[in-house]
């Protein structure tokens, strides 16, 4: 790939170099103008995705453990997309979410039908512009990424090969682990989850970031990722993009994936970096949001 200088100057002129929470290597961060959205550079490398069969607390869809190598750095939102950032997108484009079209509404519980009249604007809990946006379907989240790519590309802040997307499942887990093999022992320091959240999301970025400067990777709200819900291949893979379609033989069921756990989930497996969940891409609920990635990926 031809490396274009604008990649090093993208987002805006301001560059923040942040020391990791563990005192490790500094993390490069850049801000997207007009959105107050910080992107964190995730270094390329190799990690073990999922768990070996029989790992304490894991579920059967988290194996076989797979060695994943990323050959290029990528960028990931330091936080989940906030209500204020989503509002800017809506006011700029006039976009209506799938929850708003036909007054479809959103889910409050997995076992109930959608409640008409509710959407990201009024998700049933108090929120400010700093809360993570919810009531967003996978399709809605992808529309935000498409808009952001077009916006930044038109402004000359993106090389031609790069685009904003939802992170792949592998990118998400790699960034969540941040070089660790296990999850943090003190979940209260890094996550809003059932024991400390009151069952509702909290403003983004209020818990300690992981060693690479990423907040709320565990807890607060579940996050859509790019992939179809599929089986891990095992062995070793390089720059995986997930199943190519819902008809791929590796797909367990034709659902889109989410990662990270949420404010209603218990500790332990509920907010493990390996925990996976899936549902239809048209699903909008009070507990699912998203964050954006920037890469040459899918």
SSE layout:
Layout: H1 6-9, E1 15-18, E2 27-32, E3 37-42, E4 45-49, E5 66-70, E6 74-77, H2 83-93, H3 138-154, E7 163-165, H4 169-177, H5 187-190, H6 194-197, E8 222-230, E9 235-238, E10 251-259, E11 276-279, E12 288-289, E13 293-295
Parallel strand pairs: 5-9, 8-12
Antiparallel strand pairs: 1-2, 2-3, 3-6, 4-5, 6-13, 7-13, 8-10, 10-11
Largest sheet: 6 strands, antiparallel
Distance between the termini: 16 Å
Number of DSSP E strands? 13
Helical percent range? Answer: 10-25%
| The CATH topology | paralog of FGE (formylglycine-generating enzyme)
CATH class: Alpha Beta
Category by helix and strand content: alpha+beta
Structure characterization notes:
By secondary structure, this protein is an alpha+beta fold. It has a single domain (6-295), classed as paralog of FGE (formylglycine-generating enzyme), CATH 3.90.1580. Helix content is 16%, strand content 21%. The protein contains six helices and 13 strands. It has helices at 6-9, 83-93, 138-154, 169-177, 187-190, 194-197, and strands at residues 15-18, 27-32, 37-42, 45-49, 66-70, 74-77, 163-165, 222-230, 235-238, 251-259, 276-279, 288-289, 293-295. Strands 1-2-3-6-13-7 form a six-stranded antiparallel sheet. A four-stranded mixed sheet has the order 11-10-8-12. The chain is globular.
């Amino acid at each position: 790939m031809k490396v274009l200088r604008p990649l090093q100057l993208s987002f805006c002129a301001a560059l923040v170099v942040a020391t990791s929470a563990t005192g490790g290597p500094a993390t490069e961060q850049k801000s997207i103008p007009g959105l107050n959205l910080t992107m964190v550079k995730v270094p390329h490398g190799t990690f073990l995705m999922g768990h070996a069969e029989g790992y304490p607390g894991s579920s059967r869809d988290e194996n076989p453990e797979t060695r994943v190598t990323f050959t290029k750095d990528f960028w990931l939102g330091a936080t989940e997309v906030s209500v204020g950032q989503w509002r800017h997108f809506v006011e700029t484009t006039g976009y209506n979410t799938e929850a708003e079209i036909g007054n479809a509404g959103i889910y409050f519980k997995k076992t109930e039908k959608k409640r008409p009249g509710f959407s990201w604007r009024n998700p049933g809990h108090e929120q400010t512009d700093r809360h993570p946006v919810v009531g967003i379907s996978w399709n809605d989240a992808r529309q935000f990424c498409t808009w952001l790519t077009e916006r930044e590309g038109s402004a000359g802040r993106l090389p031609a090969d790069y685009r904003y997307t939802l992170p792949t499942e592998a990118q998400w887990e790699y960034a969540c682990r941040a070089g660790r093999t296990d999850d943090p022992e003190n979940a209260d320091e890094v996550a809003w989850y059932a024991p400390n959240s009151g069952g509702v999301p909290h403003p983004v970025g209020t818990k300690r970031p992981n060693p690479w400067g990423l907040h709320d990777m565990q807890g607060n709200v579940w996050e859509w990722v790019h992939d179809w819900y599929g089986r891990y291949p095992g062995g070793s893979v390089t720059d995986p993009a997930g199943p190519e379609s819902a008809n791929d033989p590796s797909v367990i069921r034709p659902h889109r994936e989410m990662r990270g756990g949420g404010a209603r989930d218990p500790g332990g497996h509920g907010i493990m970096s390996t925990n996976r969940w899936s549902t239809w891409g048209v699903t909008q609920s009070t507990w699912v949001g998203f964050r954006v990635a920037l890469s040459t990926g899918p």
